[in-house]
Amino acid sequence: MQTPRQLSRRTVVAATAAGLAAAVVAPARAVEARAARFHTVGRVRKAADGTVRYSWPGVSFEGRFHGTGVGVVLDDSDNDYDVQVDGTTLATLVTPGRAVSWIDGLADGGHRVRVVKRTESPWAAGRFGGFVAAPGGAILARPRARSRQIEFIGDSYTAGYGNVSDTRDCSGNGGVNRNSNADLAFGALTARKLDADFQINAFSGRGMVRNYNGGDPGTDFRTYYDRALLNVEGDVWRKPDSWRPRVVVIGLGINDFSTPLNPGERWSTTAELVAAYESAYHGFLDKLRARYGRGTFLVVAAARLWNTTAFAEATLRIVEERGRRGDGRVSHWYYDDPGLDYLGCDWHPSLHDHRIVSGLLDSHLAGLPLRW
């Protein structure tokens, strides 16, 4: 897939809410006319009218159409989306609201379309209503799912927080959302090189047991992992039989260890935090094993932190312990590179950095006995 770039043809027109209503098929026909005609990648909550709701970054929808244009039916005032046709990003939809957004002026013929959610929205759910053909065209049968599947679990690094910014202070260039693109985070880059469907189940600021700077005590990443809709307490995602990732990459720990403990937190010392972290991590790996089986490779990831080695050391001990327990399909992936510039928002990895980290992950996966 090509890197997003500006094209000379600018063909996106956002319809009004009334236009959306006119374009949407009746609910009774929605399942036949829409849901059956797009491939979903990511966790979603399906509705009776054929639309789907979702919260996680990087959720995408793929379709096929014949004609000179295609409309994208969305209801989302919080997130940004990229629209790609035949592998090229033709438009970025910034908080499109309730609208049909059109790509037109294409060569008459068969095309593939992909819509991907760039941003995080743990506080709100977006809604996708399918694709609409331009006059004289047709929406074709949905593309097949890819045979390879990979899941990424993590925090802001995994979500692509601020990764397309060229400055660490994003207050003057649109803020974090305008400068984030999960589809260009290291996980998505690696998955595309593998031609794999992927999930990016990432939540910025969350850790395995402790959130950034001890915030929002009593919750952590595990509070939300089982959900399809992050903003709905008690929501449970029902794993479809079709979702069987061969690899799961877990990157949780930056928020646990990157800031010092504050007075009043549950852990008085770093040693207590490390013990709680390792215990919770083993429980989380047990959950993944129960969900995906012993054939899935679990990659325990750790990045270098400027202030401590606790993260890298704890994750290495976890992997060694899994090996002693007889699970040889848990590996340790520690990544660092002198070329990382951390020029993304708030000192996060930049797009340049995500490309480097993706290459490091590619090398790690190449060393595993994977049989896709």
Please supply descriptive tags for the structure shown above.
25% helix, 26% strand, alpha+beta, 372 residues, 10 helices, disordered N terminus, six-stranded antiparallel β-sheet, single chain
Distance between the termini: 21 Å
Computed over alpha carbons, the radius of gyration is 21 Å
Total of helices? 10
Helix content: 10-25%
* Unreliable stretches covering 5 or more consecutive residues: 1-35
Strand order of the largest sheet: 1-9-6-11-4-3
Shape: globular
**Mind summarizing the main beta sheet?**
6 strands, antiparallel
- Please state roughly what percent of the residues sit in beta strands, choosing from under 5%, 5-15%, 15-25%, 25-35%, 35-45% or over 45%: 25-35%
Number of strands: 17
Strand and helix order: EHHEEEEEEEEEEEEHHHEHEHHEHEH
Mean pLDDT comes to 91
Main structural class: alpha+beta
Written overview of the protein:
- The strands form three sheets. The chain has a six-stranded antiparallel β-sheet with strand order 1-9-6-11-4-3, covered by helices on one side. Strands 2, 5, 7, 8, 10 and 12 form a six-stranded antiparallel β-sheet that branches. A five-stranded parallel β-sheet has the order 14-13-15-16-17, with helices on both faces.
- The protein is built from ten helices and 17 strands.
- Strand 7 and strand 8 form a beta hairpin.
- The chain has 372 residues and is an alpha+beta fold.
- 44% of the residues are buried.
How would you briefly describe this protein structure?
By secondary structure, the chain is an alpha+beta fold. It has helices at 17-23, 27-33, 156-159, 175-178, 186-193, 221-224, 254-257, 270-292, 310-324, 351-366, and strands at 13-14, 39-41, 45-46, 52-54, 60-67, 70-76, 80-85, 88-94, 97-103, 109-117, 126-133, 138-139, 148-154, 196-202, 247-251, 297-303, 330-335.
